[in-house]
Specification:
Layout (H helix, E strand, L loop, with lengths): L1 H20 L4 H17 L1 H14 L5 E3 L2 E3 L3 E3 L12 H9 L10 H6 L3 E5 L12 E4 L4 E4 L8 H9 L10 E5 L7 H17 L6 E5 L15 H22 L6 E5 L5 H14 L3 E4 L3 E4 L7 E6 H20 L5 E5 L5 H10 L4 E3 L1 H6 L3 H15 L1
Parallel strand pairs: 3-14, 4-7, 7-8, 8-9, 9-10, 10-13, 13-14
Antiparallel strand pairs: 1-2, 5-6, 6-12, 11-12
The structure holds flavin mononucleotide (FMN).
Flavin mononucleotide (FMN) binds next to β6, β12 and α12.
Length: 384
């Protein structure tokens, strides 16, 4: 009965709503979606109904990953619920304090999708890249974007979420991105610590923090922050900070996860994995999008997600898990990249990833993507 209802909703999306949405460009569809989310966040009856629908069709599937117990192995990846761009922290804080919804979807998306990683948030607000920044490639079930870390900045994001503390979901993650364009390692460490502290001091406690070391769509060289040395410094300082906060409060430390890109060398992944284990990182999300020439201007880079990323993401996860086993455990690996159905999800589970993240599946499978994919993956696991 539950499965039949879920499949019916999935089929209605694929056969009815998706073709309608796909009549618009990816950019226009995304902008309309943000408008719809702003309205849904306000409509009590609507998000209550969305939550009820999810609970009716998505049975709990508890997993332990990266130091957290979650009631599903599918997490909506960072990049959807991240907020508006602002030119200054002052403007972002003023908007948050003025009651503006600066983070569309903060309430409606967790209601319908379940587990969500908010962000990425950077230390300072960012306007993101101008012009068209989103594309889709239906033939391969892919997306491409060069949003460029548009976000209100950690302080305003934290202030906004803190003011809504009682309405936040019971479990969620927060993704902090290293500051693009900052070359000085000490400054990078400081900005990451200040970003974490923005949430901690305001009492916004996620189940995990993810540190995004990899963004192909900014002015940065995305590989630059993923050297073992710099990653060790930034992650080590972040883990120490979260431990100190925990000692002061008496609560267990919020685990730190890290997100890496799909295009590093095998040696670099191995070195990173050893570094993560040494400094106390609890999990790695593999991977972020793959930087490729943008469809409108090949001189610009735009990150590919979905079908065209899947193979590279699976290979990356396999390498990281190989290193994890050689080291005798320690750091979990979450798959992320082209999780579109039970089979693509099972590709990561079969390697030993206890959980996965997804983004593009939301576009192709609809808002109940996690429930649909979990149902399919569970059925496949039982068959094996
Ligand atoms: C429009 C868009 C924006 C994104 N923004 C972020 C971001 O701010 N931080 C981040 O860590 N990942 C970001 N991502 C990457 C996703 O979290 C995910 O790693 C990637 O899309 C691969 O998953 P998928 O194949 O399921 O899409 C973004 C992806 C998309 C499509």
């Amino acid at each position: 009965m539950r499965t039949a209802l879920l499949n019916l909703i999935g089929a209605l999306y694929a056969g009815g709503l998706r073709p309608l949405i796909f009549r618009a460009t990816a950019q226009d569809a995304h902008e309309r979606m943000m408008g719809a989310l702003r309205r849904a966040d306000r409509a009590v009856w609507l998000y209550a109904a969305l939550r009820a629908i999810r609970r009716a069709v998505a049975p709990p599937w508890p997993v332990e990953v990266g130091g957290v117990r979650l009631d599903s192995p599918l997490i909506l990846a960072a990049g959807l619920v991240k907020g508006d761009g602002f030119a200054s922290e002052e403007a972002a804080l003023a908007a948050a304090r003025g009651g503006q919804n600066i983070m569309p979807g903060w309430r409606a998306i967790p209601a319908i999708a379940g587990l969500v990683e908010f962000g990425s948030f950077t230390r300072w607000p960012r306007m993101g890249n101008p012009g068209v920044v989103m594309w889709r490639d239906e033939a391969t079930g892919s997306t491409q974007n060069r949003v460029g870390l548009k976000n209100p900045g950690a302080a305003a994001a934290a202030e906004f979420l803190a003011a809504r503390g009682h309405s936040l979901p019971p479990r969620f993650g927060i993704n902090i991105a290293v500051s693009p364009g900052v070359d000085d390692p000490d400054r990078q460490v400081l900005e990451v610590l200040e970003s974490l502290a923005a949430f901690v001091v305001r009492g916004v406690t996620p189940a995990w923090f993810t540190l995004n070391l990899s963004c192909p769509n900014t002015e940065d060289d995305p590989g630059g922050n993923q050297t073992a040395d710099l990653a060790g410094q930034v992650c080590g300082a972040a883990v120490d900070y979260l431990r100190t906060v925990a000692e002061d409060s008496g609560a267990p430390p919020v685990p730190l996860w890290v997100k890496v890109g799909p295009d590093l060398s095998a040696d670099q992944y191995r070195a990173l994995m050893r570094t993560f284990a040494r400094v106390g990182v609890r999990a790695v999300v593999a991977t972020n999008t793959l930087g490729m020439p943008s469809p409108d201007d090949p001189s610009l880079t735009a990150g590919v997600g979905g079908g065209r990323l899947h193979e590279a993401a699976v290979q990356t996860a396999a390498l990281l898990l190989e290193e994890q086993r050689a080291a005798g455990g320690g750091v979990d690996v979450l798959g992320c990249g082209g999780v579109a159905d039970g089979a693509t999800c099972a590709d990561f589970f079969a390697l030993g990833a206890p959980a996965v993240q997804y983004w593009t599946a939301l576009v192709y499978r609809g808002p109940l993507a996690a429930a649909l994919i979990a149902g399919e993956a569970r059925a496949l696991t039982k068959e094996m």
